Predict the structure.
Amino acid sequence: MQGRSLLPLLRGESPDWRQEVFFQVSESEVGRGLRTPRWKYGVTAPDADPWHDPGAERYVESYLYDLTHDPHELFNLAGHASHESVAAHLRARLAARMQEAGEAEPRIDPAPAKPRYEQRQVMEGEERA
C-alpha cells in the first residue's frame, strides 16, 4: 500500500497534500475512481472478473457526481454533455494516478451519451474544483 506519513500534520505543519483520493473497487466489480472535494468519478471494467482480475486494460466511465450540488449522489452525470469537460479532466487525472500506482496505461472509454436534461452547463475552471 502506498502512503505518506501523517507526522507533519500532527506537528502542525501544512505539507502540500493532494486534494483527491484515488480508490480501487474489487469486491463486486473491477473499478477505479477519484474523489475530489467536489467530484466523485468512477470507472469499471465490464470484461473483467472481480474474483480473478485485479485490473483491466479497458474501463468505461460508470459515474460522475457533483458532491457540492448532489451530496447524496442521486444524479449520475456520466454521459451527459453538460459535464463532458469535467469527465475528460477527471479521466486524465485517474489514468495518471493508475499509472503512478504501477498499473499499465488504461483505456478509459467515455460513458454512453445520455439524453439532455435540465442540468446547468459547467463553467470553465469548475472541473478543477
Remarks:
- The first helix runs from residue 7 to 10.
- The chain has a mean pLDDT of 89.
